[in-house]
From TrEMBL:
GO terms for molecular function: ATP binding. Residues 2-219 form the ABC transporter domain. InterPro entries: AAA+_ATPase, ABC_transporter-like_ATP-bd, ABC_transporter-like_CS, ABC_transpr_LolD-like, P-loop_NTPase. Gene3D superfamilies: P-loop containing nucleotide triphosphate hydrolases (3.40.50.300). This is ABC transporter ATP-binding protein. SUPFAM superfamilies: P-loop containing nucleoside triphosphate hydrolases. Keywords: ATP-binding, Nucleotide-binding. Pfam families: ABC_tran. PROSITE patterns: ABC_TRANSPORTER_1 (PS00211), ABC_TRANSPORTER_2 (PS50893). It comes from Streptococcus panodentis.
């Protein structure tokens, strides 16, 4: 279980969150919705330890995590978090395969050979096997989206953070990605998706909406 309590966050003098609470359990798909610019990405970044909070508490598996400590959070992120970024953050001059296995080279949780096998099996599932040796700059937006998704899963994380993971996808790829989230749910992962896409609602267990610097659970 991931639990954030009374989180406050400001950028300069602008309030983003005022004492917000949030939780997500294993085997749960939780949505984070709200208008553009309201703080969805910021909240995912806080969970990932990529943004500091002004106050509040962060718990994982009933243990407090010091989420403003860079060393603690880089270890925590490596071990537990797969993050699909809104802008993908792929390396254009690397191939698809090189991008996918990049986290493995940093973390050393798997050997490179194992990582390549994992990458290839994901690529088959997401119809990217022909793209593996292409440089990312030469593939389409929807293909990039799928590469970013695969890269987030390569280390087999317990928590998956997905920032608008379906915006660039056509109907077939959208269905694939939805099935993947459902599969991750079966594997008892924690899945948190920031989205505007109403089509995702049907697979969500719970939804939160950010309004007026608060996060409210919406029906
Ligand atoms: N590093 C930063 N410094 C100052 N302000 C920031 C910073 N990053 C984001 N903001 C501001 O914080 C607010 C929340 O941004 P955020 O990116 O979290 O919104 P969002 O809900 O993800 O929006 P979108 O749906 O467009 O992706 C915005 O008003 C944004 O301009
Ligand atoms: Mg965003």
């Amino acid at each position: 279980m991931l639990k954030l309590e009374k989180i406050c966050k400001k950028y300069d003098n602008k309030n983003i969150f005022r004492k917000v609470n949030f939780r997500a359990s294993t085997g749960e798909i939780v949505l984070l919705t709200g208008e553009s610019g309201i703080g969805k990405t910021t909240f995912l970044e806080i969970i990932a330890g990529l943004r500091k909070i002004d106050s509040g508490k962060y718990y994982y598996d009933n243990q407090e995590i010091l989420c403003n400590d860079d060393d603690i959070m880089s270890g925590f992120r490596n071990k537990n978090i797969g993050y699909i970024l809104q802008d993908f953050a792929l390396v254009d001059d690397y191939t698809v395969l090189e991008n996918i296995i990049l986290p493995v080279l940093y973390s050393r949780f798997f050997s490179k050979e194992e990582a390549i096998l994992r990458a290839k099996s994901f690529a088959l599932k997401f119809y990217l096997e022909k793209e593996l040796d292409k440089k990312v700059r030469f593939i389409s937006g929807g293909q990039k989206q799928r590469v970013a998704i695969i890269r987030s899963l390569i280390l087999n994380p317990e928590i998956i953070l997905a920032d608008e993971p379906t915006t660039n996808l056509d109907k077939n790829n959208f269905r694939l990605v939805l099935e993947m989230f459902q599969e991750l749910k079966k594997q008892e992962k924690i899945i948190i998706i920031a989205t505007h896409d109403d089509r995702i609602k049907k697979i969500a267990d719970r939804s939160y909406k950010i309004v007026n610097q608060e996060i409210i659970e919406s029906p």
